[in-house]
Batch of 2 targets.
Target 1
Amino acid sequence: MMTDSGTQSFGLTKYWIILKNSAQSNLVYRFDVISGLVAEGLNLVIFSFLWLSIYRQGNQIGSYSLGGLIFYFILTRFFALIIAYTDISRTVSDEIYEGKIVNYMLKPLSYFGRMISINIGRVAVRLLMFFPLIAVAAYFLRSNFHLTINSTFFLILIAIAGSLINFLFFYLMGLFAFFLDGTAGISYLGWLAMTFFSGRMVPLDILPRSLGRVLDYLPFKFVSYVPAQIILGKFNQVELLANLALSLAWLAALWLLARALYNAGLKRYESYGI
Amino acid sequence: MNHMAYNRYIRIYLQKVKISIMSRMVNPANFFVLLFGVVAQAYISIYFLKVVYGYVENISGWSYEQALLVIASFLFIEGLIWITTAYLSGVRNNVRNGTLDTQLIKPVDSQFLISVWRIDPEDVMRIVVAFIIFLQAAGHFHYSFADWVVRTFFYAILIFDGYVIFYSIALMINSLYCWFTEAGGMHMIFESVIRMSQYPTDIFNQSMVKYLFSSLVPIAFIGTIPAKAIAFGPRFDLMIYANLLAFLLFIISRRVWHAGLRAYSSASS
């Protein structure tokens, strides 16, 4: 049974089980998921009223029409609901502080693998739960969709990269627990950065040019802004390629950083009585 | 309640403040990062407004400086809520952990004890930032000294009313945990609605929505209405309405809390 291939197969199976457990537990707490949707919906209503009162006066924000701007916010909120999960940092830091992480060090299980399986399970459930809503929204707002087969391909890749960037970013925040006595502050800052710099409050292209240029090189935009802009058809082929390359570079950089931080953390980690 | 009892409650609150500061200062680095985070969050709200006002002169009749007053009012009230009750998180934490009984058997009013169960001292920064924003905005209004005194008097009362309204709604929402231990979603929705108070409610031009946010879910009193006292002049009718609403909501929230306690079945006993 324990041939190389058998071991490998078992290796994948255990992560599949973690993924399934995560999906099931997210289904159990579906009231929280639906409440999240209502909360984001209410948020969208306020912003829509805000934009409406601005456009009613004959003003315009950047190159966006009123419909385009509202559609942009619908998209970023959908991406936020599905992929922007921030609790990872608290889970990781709690497990480090409480010594639970030792359990995974003693088992033939990668801690990173476990956490990413939990994350994928959560994203999969949310995607399934929100799919009917996305389909309905897509049908009624189809005139705003500017997707081609080519850009859909890039959208899928960049959205997956964005989801993993979000995961790695908050996973890193949690790993700071190896070095700090409290990570609540740093996680709070991370959440603030992700909320504003991912374009969830305002589209990044309406921000002042100097700030926009800096944010263009940071990883946050791949979580909401870039996927939304692809759907709105705002990128040409070169920009799509450049965004994909940059998102993959950030993914690699964050993954290497997470590995280095985890290994450095384990070297100095002490736990008692576990 | 006599004078001695008031003193006792003040002493308990001050002890809670002391304990909170001590527990935060166990890890000073984290405390200062949290302080910085609070300032950063307030700055993001202002920056958002600045970006929007970069494209428009006014929004529904509110200039940039007047809209700053709405943010300042919201931050004053939110800061007060955090440093006195931490969004009433004591209710849900104690219900979920089955430790509510230990709070109920103490010879102090249960509502008071559960309200001050947690206090977040770092959120005093919200009040400091609110004060700075208020001063910055106030510099653009050229009123006489007497005018300032009257407007500020009305403003202070409306801020207090806003605090009581916020507190009462938070208590009612958190009391739901006594019936449904998994009411976390309601809390998410509550926070989302409360965040609307940062923007002038005059943007809701539909009369139904306007009515909703000034009566049923009175978020207008947590930002817009206090700001109006400074920006557009004091209105006696609004102040009376705010006082009555605050009083009424406080009474209702106390009843809801007691009803919640009657429905509560302990998890620990």
Target 2
Amino acid sequence: MLLHTVNKSPFDRNSLENCLRFAQKGHSILLFEDGIYGALTGTRFETLLKGALKSYNIYVLVPDIQARGMRTENVIDGIKSTDYAGFVDLVAENKTVQAWL
Amino acid sequence: MKFAILVNEGPYQHQASDSAYQFTQAALKKGHEIFRVFFYHDGVNNASRLTVPPQDDRHIVNRWSELAKAHNLDLVVCIAAAQRRGMLDENEAKRNGKDANNIAEGFRISGLGQLIEAGIQSERLVVFGD
């Protein structure tokens, strides 16, 4: 399986949308750095992410949510919280890591 | 498991070097091996010994040097990217007729082949950048 990493906000770049266009069913996606903004409720990307959850395992890096003063309570239901140790595990579990820079 | 890390962004810009550092530290803590950390493009600026951040800020360069010392890490700076940006070790300074060098302890300057080798020798290549 494949792990995709997205580190930019969907309001800034189109890397999250590109990632979702190319990812295949069952792949995992990690949102970190400014990418965490894609994991929050109440934005115009919420519907996109909720749809994506049907096909992919989506993770968000909690330290990067906290560093930005965002709240983990506002993470879209179904997106899994993780930390750096979890990030390492995701990399180890997946055969390839694709960074959408 | 054997990991290789690629850092494509300079320090104090966005977060690439910080994320790469946190990831490397977490991987080592879990008993994984870091085959090499390769600094490419503006990432070479992570190796400047002359970096002087404010005292209450993290010292990104020293932090890498210390981690390298503690875990015997191979921190490699791309030579072509480094020369363009004025990043030189003692040998390169001499070879190019420069009066100083600025590479921090624990880093070494080498070619892009080191990235290819890291990709081949490691089981995972994790990329951090802009």
